[in-house]
Design brief:
Largest sheet: 4 strands, mixed
Helix content: 40-55%
Structural class: alpha/beta
Number of strands: 8
Radius of gyration: 23 Å
Shape: elongated
Oligomer: single chain
Order of helices and strands: HHHHEHEHEEHHHHHHHHHHEEHEEHHH
Amino acid sequence: MSSDPRCRRPLRSALAVGAASAALLFCAAAPGTAAESPGQKIADALRTSPVYVDPSLSSAVGPDDQRKLVTQIQQTHLPIKVVLVPLVEGDSWGGKSEQLSQVVHDRMGGGPAVLITPGSYPDDIAADEWPANAHQAGHAAASVFFDDTMKGAGLTKRISRAIDIIKAGDGDKVYNQLTARLGTPSGGGTAKRPAAHGGSPVVRIVALVAGPLLVPAAAWLLLRRRSRLRDLATPFAMPRSVFAAAHKADEDGLRDRATEEVVRLGEEARAAEGDPAAVERALDAYSAAGTVLDHARGVPDLAGVFALIAEGRAALSTAPATLPLCFFHPLHGPAVRRIPWRPLGRREQLRVATCDTCLRAVRARRAPEVLTDRLDGHPVPYFEVPAEKSLWAATGYGSLLSGDSLAAHVQRGDFTRTLG
């Protein structure tokens, strides 16, 4: 697919119209209720200030940062707007930055505009503009990701850099210069150029999954997959069908399945022979899983039960050391690889375990499905809940642990301490 924003404009419009909720459509037809929609709320705020920051992101872009961006935008004399809201699958924008831009632009009444929003991946920003490509904003925003001087820079600095490029009007040139060193074809070939917006460029994916990990040949990857399948076929491995069924179950059904698996783990651990230390670890995981199950308040906690069960069964397995459950959505099942990942608005980079499904989503330029929790009454990715309020955010369901175990955290009270 072409990366030219003009080529994708019809598709974006179609997606925005087709995926917008019935409430938003009703608001468009009933002015009396339009102010209640999220898109209208943002549009109204942008009429008084060109920068809108959701309260949940105020720690990344504080009041002083917002004032600096407002001053910078005013000096450009361009219709630039910055809209920073957390994008989560299933939200009013379908988790898509282009849909957020389209809805807000429509609520503002249309006309010339440049909307800068969070991109599809951490450390990524995106831009849409009307008329299309009038200021090369799409490439201007995309180029920031490839700028080495922006590595480790905060969200404010990255947006500021994009505004400078948009003002200069040379986003295409800057983008081509920064991506040329990555082997981007200069034209004529059949290889696809990284997209300036939308599902994030291929080279961004390479950066996210640590380029060196993707260098090995396809045959090596196939051997790894076969090896992983053999590991999962060992006597104490949890079948993939368990996770497939758990993922589709509602909360009550998920609780029933978790109960069944906890009981099964206890039976397997008590019947196991071999390394006493391994059996003890499995029994610890069994006990911890029972504790979490007894106090589970919702799907995130029930997913923690499955993470503890997987930890217990890994202790009993004779297969080589296995990875924890998928960081992005533990009900996807066991992870197959660790990748570097940096949360939006933060400088520290983490290495998280990801399942084959999420890895394929990243490679296909799609946002992985993320397990959500609730923070102040609103759904957010579970890992955005403060660590002191969630054992799962603190540990990534095992991905963020180093040397210790989930069971150990539960045993010392880390789970029950966060219940309040």
